[in-house]
């Protein structure tokens, strides 16, 4: 393990002529929670997707736990990794989306067991034990034989978190994990994330939950227009934003 779980250097990403990321730099150390704030369209999701190579970047470099993502450096040149090698890198990174996308025809337990059994071909009994323990941890021990449609949005999102954890990721990416939830269900998902953070998981969390960012975040970046406008300890950035754009955004969400 390096002392940097995520390192982004001058990351650029365009879709056609639209430049969405205009040189993002970021370091997240092991065990840290980095919260990402910013208005809609500022490139937050795109940046997360670049970290686990769901999007290819146009320039710059991203490392996860010291590994260059998507490329190999040889003789000063970057060569794209093969699909299999990218898949291996991706397995170490868990991602949780706004929409939970559980498999509707599988039970809760099967949903959590699916990736380790199919992708990693792990021993089924071991995976079952681990999946059950994870579901217990997210407070859903009594739901393991239920189906996603029988669960509330908050419960489904907790299953999605357990499902990501079942792959034993070293890094978890959250893209607005509570934005699709009814307000009364937000807390139970944030509590699970808090518990994960306390347990030492490295997390990058795109969220509009300012309270969570202030309480749980070790660092905060504010993005707008594809650049990091401001960053620092969450309490400082939220309590005393230095940039006009940060002030304007916070005054709307606080
Ligand atoms: P955020 O998550 O901060 O709301 P996004 O990263 O989703 O922002 O999007 C940033 C910009 O990139 C938006 O203008 C969006 O329309 C554009 N964008 C995102 N994904 C694609 C894509 N696959 N093709 C074209 N444009 C995209
Ligand atoms: Mg987004």
UniProtKB/TrEMBL annotation:
<feature type="domain" description="ABC transporter">
    <location>
        <begin position="6"/>
        <end position="250"/>
    </location>
</feature>
<dbReference type="Pfam" id="PF00005">
    <property type="entry name" value="ABC_tran"/>
</dbReference>
<dbReference type="InterPro" id="IPR003439">
    <property type="entry name" value="ABC_transporter-like_ATP-bd"/>
</dbReference>
<comment type="similarity">
    <text>Belongs to the ABC transporter superfamily.</text>
</comment>
<keyword id="KW-0547">Nucleotide-binding</keyword>
<keyword id="KW-0813">Transport</keyword>
<dbReference type="GO" id="GO:0015426">
    <property type="term" value="F:ATPase-coupled polar amino acid-transporter activity"/>
</dbReference>
<protein>
    <recommendedName>
        <fullName>ABC-type polar-amino-acid transporter</fullName>
        <ecNumber>7.4.2.1</ecNumber>
    </recommendedName>
</protein>
<dbReference type="InterPro" id="IPR050086">
    <property type="entry name" value="MetN_ABC_transporter-like"/>
</dbReference>
<dbReference type="GO" id="GO:0016887">
    <property type="term" value="F:ATP hydrolysis activity"/>
</dbReference>
<dbReference type="InterPro" id="IPR003593">
    <property type="entry name" value="AAA+_ATPase"/>
</dbReference>
<dbReference type="GO" id="GO:0005524">
    <property type="term" value="F:ATP binding"/>
</dbReference>
<dbReference type="InterPro" id="IPR027417">
    <property type="entry name" value="P-loop_NTPase"/>
</dbReference>
<keyword id="KW-0067">ATP-binding</keyword>
<dbReference type="InterPro" id="IPR030679">
    <property type="entry name" value="ABC_ATPase_HisP-typ"/>
</dbReference>
<dbReference type="InterPro" id="IPR017871">
    <property type="entry name" value="ABC_transporter-like_CS"/>
</dbReference>
């Amino acid at each position: 393990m390096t002392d940097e779980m995520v390192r982004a250097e001058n990351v650029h990403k365009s879709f056609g002529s639209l430049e969405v990321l205009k040189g993002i730099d970021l370091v997240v150390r092991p065990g840290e929670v980095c919260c990402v704030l910013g208005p809609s369209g500022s490139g937050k999701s795109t940046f997360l997707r670049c970290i686990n190579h769901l999007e290819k970047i146009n320039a710059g470099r991203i490392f996860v736990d010291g590994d260059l993502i998507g490329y190999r450096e040889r003789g000063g040149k970057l060569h794209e990794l093969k699909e299999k090698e990218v898949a291996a890198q991706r397995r170490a990174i868990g991602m949780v989306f706004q929409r939970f996308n559980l498999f509707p025809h599988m039970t809760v337990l099967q949903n959590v067991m699916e990736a380790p059994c199919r992708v990693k071909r792990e021993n089924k009994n071991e995976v079952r034990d681990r999946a059950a323990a994870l579901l217990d941890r997210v407070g859903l021990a009594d739901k393991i034989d239920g189906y996603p449609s029988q669960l509330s949005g908050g419960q489904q999102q907790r299953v999605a978190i357990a499902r990501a954890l079942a792959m034993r990721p070293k890094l978890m990416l959250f893209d607005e994990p509570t934005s699709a939830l009814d307000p009364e269900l937000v807390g139970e998902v944030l509590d699970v994330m808090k518990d994960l953070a306390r347990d030492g998981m490295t997390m990058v969390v795109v969220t509009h939950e300012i309270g969570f960012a202030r309480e749980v975040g070790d660092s905060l970046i504010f993005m707008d227009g594809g650049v990091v406008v401001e960053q620092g300890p969450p309490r400082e950035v939220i309590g005393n934003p230095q940039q006009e754009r940060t002030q304007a955004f916070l005054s709307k969400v606080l």
